[in-house]
User: Fold these one by one.
Assistant:
Number 1:
Amino acid sequence: MRWDGQTIAADDGALPGLELAGLMRAGLVRSVRTPEFAGVTFHEIMAKSALSKVPAASRMPFRWTINPYRGCSHACRYCHSTDTPVLRADGSWRAIGALGPGDEVVGTQVVDGVRRYVPTTVIDTWQTRKPAYRVTLADGTQVVASGDHRLLATDGWRYVAPGADEQPGLRAGARLLGPGRSGDGGGAVSGKAVEGGPGLEVASVESLGPRLRDLVDITTGTGDFIANGVVSHNCFARPTHEYLDLDAGKDFDTQVVVKINVGEVLHAELARPSWQREPVALGTNTDPYQRAEGRYKLMPGIITALADSGTPFSILTKGTLLRRDLPLIVEAERKVEVGLGVSLAFADKELQQAIEPGTPTPQARLDLIRAVRAAGLPCGVMVAPVLPWLTDSRDHLRRLLDAVAEAGATGVTVIPLHLKPGTREWYLQWLERDHPDLVAGYGRVFGRGTYALKAYRSWLWERVQPLLHERGFGSSGHRARSGATGRYTDELRPHDEGDYPSGSMAKSAAGGAVAGMPVDGSGLEVAGAGVEQVLF
């Protein structure tokens, strides 16, 4: 997103000598570092827009979101040499540097647990200069890319070269996945399973030296594409930082853009005659109650603007800072429909802190649920992600659901682990280090896919369903048409893995569908497609 801004003189909290033209165009006020956020720089901007419209192609059950912060701990940064051939949907090849928005290329998508080739559209392209590496395959194919680019191998996404944060690099002998340059063209591979073609073993990975080289990357609808015969990853979030002249890798982790005037801008947008008071969701991309909110206090202005305009809204968070704004949300709930949701996957603090270090403990989140309910507000809980062999035992699920029920949650959905690119590499590394005896089992449950096998998901539901019933959460009907499960609503509707729990999403001001979702919940994919699952 681009913002046209106004220049405001920086005060004594600004960093001297900071020259970022993109941020200045965006309306940079100042850039700040504080001791309580070691290693993080906050770029305060005067934004020109607050509401973000969800793309029409998205299957999210809402159409509008608000992101007062830009920055993420899971961003990616990677690029290819400008002459790298990319497989187009018509079966031809074109240099990545010659592609543009709207071009049809081949990507991949997981369908019923199997990754398959599908046509996809180039959404954006951009260029940069950085050192590069040459990956040579057994059949002589060469791919020139930055060290932080990721290629798909039989054991998951692998960076071209090892780097910071123990990122796994390609090694000789690794087998990449893709159709190869001598395989079928775009039209012929569409719908086929992604496999490792002959000659795609890595023969060598060599640095091309410190010289900066012209590199290009693209964003596609599927998040990947075929680069010189192998599956190559890209990141949808990168352009939001590149537009601001910030690097989209390390900077995306440590350079947080803050829309300090988001409340005032939102108030003006909601006052337009064209605004139809459609439900707005917060927390589906970046957590609005991340630690930075304690410093900037943007949410009170957002909540007030939404309520005063008659706009229903929902908040999904892990942050206990939500408690600060409960009185304001109670006041807002007298004017509009409000949905609140908390994600909680663990009953045991030790395991939770091993996998989600730095996030609020299970007890802190349970206390948050109690506080929300004590304030008279709804609070749905997402038990997500459920980890095979670690948190899917009857004992753990029973203890967790007992705690959630005792805290007063209005609804619960249970979602199994998704090993999405980026999360997959990190999680499997952790598993191999801390639970090596489980690695083989995860290979059977997930294979090379993002989602657990259907057999596991069905097994988990058969285990969870009676536990939910015993606690008044939902009714029978696995993968039925409906939406959320709940205890305190007039209508108890069947549970579905991909649903938002009852109480977590606001209804339209006009009534009917939950946050833009069809009234009967149809059209939602199974296995949590409605929620971007993030492991911290």
Number 2:
Amino acid sequence: MKIQGQRTGNKNKGEQERWKEWINSVGNYAKTVTYAYLIFIIAVFPFYAPKGYVEIGIHKFYFFKMVGLVCFGMLVPAVLLLLFMKWRRKEHFRCSVTDKAMLLYGVAVFLSFVCTEWKEEALWGTEGWYMGAVSQLMFVAIYFVISRFVENEKVWYSLFLMVSSCVFLLGLLNRFSIYPFEMKGANPIFISTLGNINWFCSYWMVLLPIGLVFYWSDIGDTVLIKAGLMLYIIVGFMTGIVQGSSSGFLALGTMIFAIFCLSFRKENRLLRWFELMILFAVSVLVISVLKSLFPESMNYQNTIAEKITEYSFGVLLLSVFVVCYTVLRYWIKHKELKIEKLVILRNIVAGIVLLAAVVVGILVVYYNSMPETIENSRLTDAFIIDSDWGNSRGATWTAGVEAFATMTFREKMVGVGPDCFYRYVYSEWEIATELYNVFGDARLTNAHNEWLTTLVNLGICGVLPYITVFITAVFRQLKEGKKHEPALVSAVCIITYTIHNMVSFQQVICTPVVFILIGMGESVICRKLSKNVEKN
């Protein structure tokens, strides 16, 4: 009996080893396919423009679609097999709050597609944008695949840095009328290898924080790496200032403020933040000098960029930040100043920002509640939201709000269909008339506010899990970042994307990237939990 029991034990042990080998083999296959997908999306996709700027959005989407369908098609059998093996072994399926929100979002997309009357448009999306059900479900798949199969996130962040540095540099050269190679259909509205300045800005704002956080943290803490990051950051800042989209300054302020708020954990973090500000001032001065040396070369400029790139402003910025940095460094080194004593500074600055937001909100409500009784001034122009306000954001937001108000109860719940905003608003006569008066024959395909567009397209059932994905991802990754700083990289990128897209929209250039970054941040948390389970 004892021998038979021993044989049974050895048999069970051998079976477990075979299951483990199978799981490892299938897992390695899934990782290989996932890594191939990442290389295509990170390193090849930004440069894919077979006809230059001609129909570049269509070509970008075609690349994204085909790579996604092939790679995810190859992954589906492996994922199903892994799930079956884990079920057979009665392993615990970990599902975080972000996972659950993402799954609910995928269900909401499918439900909205089933219920819409514009099936073809909802499947692929509006022509030129292509943010339909296929793209949305691919975003969900990207998150789960990246979060479960990607390791060594520093390597992928580094690849992002190398590729984006080329994209940024091309954009900077283009803005100063230098075109290293021919792009069919080139004009100042298009930039680098990404197309429209708004699309370029979206790519820029979601990836520049990687370089900022790498420099600010201990992730790349060698002299050579720091020097390379300084060069990357200066090029990134310069590109962001001159690229042409005003929303870039909202993104720039967001990433700088987010890193500032995180800088009160260690003394050297606050010093690094001031170093980032010095690099920003240097970037402003370099642009100012280039503009004075080559006054006719800059081919596109907005009002904000024109004002902040004045030489006197650059000198003032540099002087202020150098003095602050020097004083802080002296206090820390010679007076043994502890960062805990400066936390009040962060609270004061955050309080000022919050107070400013509240005041702006009150002024918006006041000026828009009785505009006919208020005399025209620069202040009223800033706070009265009419069709021209914020580069016509007043018209696009109004269209989104009015669209939701006219929707039926079912449509309010499940939306009018993925990427069917255009179809719906132009089917409502009053809204369509207002849009024709503002935009003429140009189509409005979204509300230029990602959450408002999602509310119309996918309804309450879609927008709530979508918002939950971003909020939970940020808070969980910030918490993990206290112990594992790579998690902070994705967190700052997600924060910047979210705030920027309050005045912008999903598109094929940046939205896949932010879902990759959300997945990478989640993968850091997943690996930590897996290690804890193995220890126990």
Number 3:
Amino acid sequence: MSATLDGMNKKSAKKAAVADRYLKLVYGGGGPLPTRRPSETPPAGGRTSVSVPKPAGGKKKSVADKTGPLRSQQKDYYLRQIGARRAKKIAVLVSVLSIFGVVIIFAASAVTSAIGGRSPFSLALRQVLWVFCGGVGYLLASKMSLQKVRDLSKPLLAISAALLFLVLLPGISKHSGGASRWIGVGPFDIQPSELAKLAFAVFVADLIDRRKHSKNYVKDLVFPVGAMAAILGIMIMRQPDLGTTIIILGIGLMEMGVSHLPKKIFITTLSVAIAVVTVLSLIEPYRFKRLLSFVNPFAHASGSGYQLAQSMLALGQGHITGAGLASSPMAWGLLPNAQTDFIFSVVGNDMGILGTLAILAAFSVLFILGIKTALSAKDIFSSYLAIGLMVLICGQAFLNIAGVIGIMPETGIPLPFFSSGGSSLIVVLTACGLLTNIARHPLGVTRPKRSRFGENGTKYAYFAQQKRVSRRTEITAYRRQNENVSYADSSAGRGEGRNAVSGYPGPNVRRGGNRSGVYEYGEPIDLRKRYL
């Protein structure tokens, strides 16, 4: 009796030692354990006295360190806290950029509006209206469930394609500057190509997540993305608008580039996209002239290079601090499209190099926050969507600024938050709302409506798995039937199946009931005709 008690005491002591080592590993070795429970909220400031020691020598973490419930709770808590702080930073940065954009719009358009007989504040007040509408889109996108956003990927893309088709119809689209990119709705104009960029980013993120286990990369991933980009690109190029086509191609390439796509296939796809853009740039005479003026703008300053030459002069005249808001000669109409495509030159002229560096820093911070949001998102769809949104916002800003300062050909892409225009600003603010939503919910999970690919890359994986289970059950039933086992007693949940010859229990039947629920309501099915 005493030996039994000693054994039990040793086992209890061993369990207590293991538990003590586990708690010390989670809460930190040495010293008394903290009295706070894991479910309690950490003190203000986001810091606690809990410290998890790193494994010595860079070795692998123990099982308790990986799967401990306290460790998991703390990790999830801090991920949510970091995501909430990141979402606030994005919201503040977007607000500052939007307000600063209204001020720059006033500086770029006040003089020309007054010369044209309008109020100097006309375009600025109109931009305030677009900021308000975009703010509503930002709030809706930041509060909407990401699952609903994913479910709307295909309907949103279909609506965008339908609107792009309507632009091509005569009598519906509105022409301006030799292009027909807008649909008139009362006093406002809608540019469907801006909505198409956002819809395409959501569509590609959903497609990559649904087909992440596919092994046929070209057929199941590259071809659908390329086909949809081609459909949208053809309708956009009919407007024409090469810049938006480049952004759509960039969204698809970037999201596929960070996915499971092999390097060889991605490089081939990238080469094809570059070749297509090159051909589109050279096939039209005016684009070819713009390319020549990009090489030497001052040699074509009286013709196709006039706009770029004036842009460089405006940037150079700003010096360090600038000439002041609406004080430069460029505000008198010497720089064409100063309030739209070349508004970055106005910033450089009015605020100098300090203003331009501030804008570059703001977009760089937004890009870093977006990349961190994509990396911290647990959901694959949300992560890919954040990458696509970064291309839509920061990639668009890069192309605009590169064209304005003369390191790339000018493509006519507006500068986000600054260029005058309602459709672009509303879409950009909505994209920022989605990015804020992803940052605020790093542990959120979305599911596709229907996925044709399972973990083994098989199409219709769910139905294939059910078919395999059914076939396995039928084969097992046939084997039992072929062994001459009677299930008359076991089907009722009592007795034991017995071999018809020997009378002993069958090899696949346990005492006291049936092993499988297949024969719970009757005799086995005769499957000899199917499998013999």
Number 4:
Amino acid sequence: MTKKESVSNGVTVYTSYSAQNYDKSPDAIVILNKNNEVLHVNDSFESLFKYSFEEIKKKNINQFIVPYELLDEEKELSKIAIDRHIVRKDTKRKSKDGKIIWVSALGLPVMIEKEEGVLVIYNDISRTIEAKEKSDEANRMKTALIANMSHEFRTPMSAILGFSDILKEELTNDEHLSMIRDIHSSARRLLNTLNSILELAHLESANFKPNFSSVNLSVELASLSKVLKNLAGNKSLSFSLDIDDNNCISYIDTDIFNQIISNVFDNAIKYTHKGGIGIRICTKNEDGKNWVFISISDTGIGISKENQKVIFNEFRQVSEGISRNYEGTGLGLTLSKKMTELMGGKIHVDSEIGKGSVFTIQFPLARDTIVLEQNKTYNFSGLPHSELPDSKPRILLVEDNKTNKVLMKRFLQNHFQIDDVSSGKEAIEAMPKENYVLILMDINLGIGMNGLETAREIRKMPVYKNTPIIAVTGYALAGEKETILASGFSDYISKPFTREQLLDVLICALEKSS
């Protein structure tokens, strides 16, 4: 283009053109009249699309380089350009040899010898798109691998921990009891290690997305307290929870928040040998912004100033190498920091050698109407449920793994009548035969319908529209719970679990449905 007539509303209008100004452009350029007929192309256009100018001169460009499925879209874009609007779009084109090419197209309305036309610039972005597709596919494979590994580790671990719990109650020989306790603690250590590694990999994958909602953190801490108190009690440590503000609302992912608190608390337990651990929650203003502050303090060994700089780094601990004194991967605090920052929060530590540490976690305050009931007494499980039922309600267990089926029946046999099936098809066939008050369902049921599909079919039966369906699964990564609950499940418990945890979930579900 050589002579610019006017510029108005971002539209450049030309009265004449000269090929020599754009023939050497690395981008493919074509000039079209208002009927989409080719008036000129540059060398890069011929190179990209394999058509010579003589082959397509005065012919409609669409029949040569636009894939059939995009013809309607291209006609609409051409009309927009002719109407004196600039058009930008990433789309597909095809070359003479049939190869599909991803291009970034820029359409500019022009005047050609007093007639309307369009100048189109095509930038080949095929390599960029291909690289993105490969990256997306790699992320999908990584996510699938992590989910499968999580399931495959958790399912057998559920049996190891569950049966060792049962044996601890039934064995009387001291030597055998010592062995089974070692088996249980070693399995728990292995599970914690695997969980940390898998969670870190999942957190760093492109598919990780928190499920944000408005949450009262005071209520969440009250719900966590029984577990935390028991952990402290197991090591003969005291525990306290101070709630200074009953209305500590923040916009977060509940499951991720619970994991952050658990990771930091586990760290405090590990390095504290006497005294106790306390948690305090309050709200205050910092730098003109309102925050929820959660401090977890311990009377442990403390952390030097030098080590405070590295404890949030991956695989780092205060004691390292062959002389290290404590178990663990060194990932708990790394995960906590990444998760906290992912939700717009901060975490830091204040500590002194020999006196203990205070980890402070803060999230933006978002005042709302979710309040902690002033007159309600929170037991430390966070489950204000009644005693177990005197009669034995009938429930259905849908589980294809024989070992886990035996374990759950042992856990529940004193409180429920349990029918069991191994597939989704068998579950659907069993539903009309009995009046089940609750259904326990694994997600991965092998060949045939999975647990999600089975739950959706059961929900179509009027009599079971509101019956509690509890997912019992090894799929426990962040985001998987939400997917499961959206498929018609009432609640969710991840493997492995204790008898008490399973009973808590069942009783709570039954109370909600009554």
